[in-house]
Design goal:
One of its GO terms (biological process) is methylation. By secondary structure, this protein is an alpha/beta fold. It is about 30% helix and about 35% strand. The protein has a 7-stranded mixed β-sheet with strand order 3-2-1-4-5-11-10, with helices on both faces. Strand 2 (about 60-65), helix 4 (about 70-80) and strand 3 form a beta-alpha-beta unit. The structure holds S-adenosylmethionine.
Length: about 250
C-alpha cells in the first residue's frame, strides 16, 4: 500500500490548520541567523508544495523533489492556479540525483526525513545533500521529534469527523527500533447528483512508517558526512531543543 497515494488529494484539507507562512518565516530566520545568502533552493519531500509555493512567491528559485506522484500532481495544479512555475521531480530522496550542484540551500520540511526509516538511508541522503551544496551552502530541515513520535503519536488513536471527510488514525510505536506505524483510514464524501446518494463515502487506507530520529543521532550523522556549524532548535523558537519539543529544526553548513 503506497504512502501518499489517494491521501495526497485530502492532505491539504487535513493540514488546513497549519500556518505555512509562519513555517516559511522560521526557515528564513534560520537562514538569516547563519548569515547565508540564499537564492536557489532544492526542497526534498516537497509534497503538495505548501512550503515550495510561498518560497517561490518570496522570490527564491526552487525545485521540489518528492517520491509521490500524487503529491506532486497536487503541487503542480496549485502552481498553475497561482500562475507560478515550479520545477518538480519525482524521485526517492535516498537515491537523490539532481543535475545542479553548487546549491545555496537544501531544505526538507515537515517530517520528510521521518519517512527515511533507517540510519543507513539517512546517511545516504545527507551525503548526497552535502555533495549538492556549494561550499558555505546551508542545509535546513525539521523533523517530528523522538518525544512526539514516542509520547504523543505512539500507541495512540486519533479521529475526526468533518462534513466531507472523516478519518481514523491508529498508531503503533516500537521504541526498540524507533519506528512508528500509522494506519490511516479515511472516508471521503462522494459528490452525488441526487439526495438519495448524498451520504455515500469512499474509504481509502494507507499505512505510513516513520522513524523517531534522536537529535544526537542526526547531529552525529551530519558531522560524519562533513557538515560544520550544526545547530538545532526546538519547535518554532530560536532556542535550544527541550525534552518535550515536538519539532526539531536543524541547520548545517557545508
Ligand atoms: C508530511 S509530508 C510533507 C510535505 C511537505 N514538505 C509539506 O511541508 O507539506 C511528507 C512528504 O515526504 C514525502 N516522502 C516520503 N518519503 C520520501 C522519499 N523517500 N523520497 C522523497 N519523498 C518522500 C512524501 O511523499 C510526502 O510528500
Amino acid at each position: 500500500m503506497a504512502q501518499y497515494g489517494n491521501f495526497a488529494y485530502i492532505y491539504d484539507q487535513l493540514m488546513d490548520d497549519v500556518d505555512y507562512e509562519k513555517w516559511v518565516d522560521h526557515i528564513e530566520n534560520l537562514i538569516k541567523l547563519n548569515n547565508i545568502k540564499v537564492k536557489n533552493i532544492l526542497e526534498l519531500a516537497c509534497g503538495t508544495g505548501n512550503i515550495t509555493i510561498p518560497l517561490t512567491r518570496r522570490g527564491y528559485d526552487i525545485a521540489g523533489i518528492d517520491i509521490s506522484e500524487e503529491m506532486l500532481d497536487v503541487a503542480y495544479n496549485k502552481s498553475i492556479e497561482e500562475n507560478t512555475t515550479l520545477v518538480l521531480l519525482e524521485q526517492d530522496i535516498v537515491e537523490l540525483d539532481f543535475d545542479i550542484y553548487d546549491l545555496d540551500c537544501v531544505l526538507c520540511a515537515c517530517d520528510g526525513f521521518n519517512y527515511i526509516t533507517s540510519i543507513e538511508d539517512l546517511d545516504k541522503v545527507f551525503t548526497k545533500v552535502h555533495q549538492q551544496l556549494k561550499d558555505g551552502g546551508i542545509f535546513v530541515f525539521d523533523i517530528s521529534s523522538h518525544f512526539k513520535l514516542k509520547n504523543i503519536l505512539g500507541n495512540n488513536f486519533m479521529g475526526q469527523s468533518r462534513k466531507d471527510l472523516s478519518y481514523m488514525w491508529t498508531n503503533y510505536y516500537d521504541d526498540q527500533i524507533q519506528l512508528l506505524e500509522m494506519e490511516l483510514d479515511f472516508f471521503v464524501k462522494i459528490d452525488a447528483d441526487d439526495d438519495e446518494e448524498d451520504n455515500l463515502y469512499e474509504k481509502y487506507s494507507e499505512v505510513h512508517l516513520q522513524r523517531a530520529h534522536k537529535e544526537e543521532e542526526i547531529i552525529k550523522l551530519l558531522e560524519k558526512v562533513g557538515f560544520e556549524d550544526i545547530k538545532s532548535f526546538g519547535d518554532f523558537e530560536l532556542e535550544n531543543v527541550k525534552e518535550d519539543s515536538q519539532r526539531v529544526f536543524f541547520t548545517a553548513i557545508k
